[in-house]
User: What shape does this take?
Amino acid sequence: MTDHEIKPALLRRPVTWRVDNACLHRQDRAREPITLPFDRITSLRMTRTVFRGQRLERFELTGPWGSEIISVNTTDVVAASNEQLAAFHRLLIDTLPRISEVRPDLAVILAERKGPKWALFSIGVIAVVAASLMLVIAMLTAQDRLWAAAVPLGTLFLFGLMISLNVRPWQDPPSVTPDDLAAELRQGLEKKAEASKTKT
Assistant: This one.
């Protein structure tokens, strides 16, 4: 049995996660404790988002309890953030192989849920249809203003086309085995440890 203290963000209080061979236990002063039995897990999801120096990593365990999300929001600018991320990765390295032992059939999905993807795809399709309709209306009613409208409508059309072609919500998301994800995270921690040794 191992305890891992995870700080979801710099201004959030730490949450303790206890890992044993059968369950993951959350001990949080702000919320009621919860136990997630590995044999009741129905899906696993891991997402990573990096935007302007901010990194958000989320690990989602779905089961009869709904979806329990363990996340960490860090920045490379603040040194403490690197330890936050390392602690999060250590928790996953400890948890994933145990889940794999109990549920060898489970894979970790490496993508957001399909709902937001379908919403984004719909926005792209609407942009393409709207730009096409407005272009046709401009051609039929006001040909003298057609060239003025061509650039913004063309931009809207290309924007919508790019979104709809790139999002592809009907495709199966990429996935990886829990053991492979744990190995990748372990390798990342080892590389960071070596890099910090060479700096000192």
Q: What stands out?
A: DSSP finds four helices and nine strands in the chain. The mean pLDDT is 85. The chain has two domains: 2-111+173-195, 114-167.
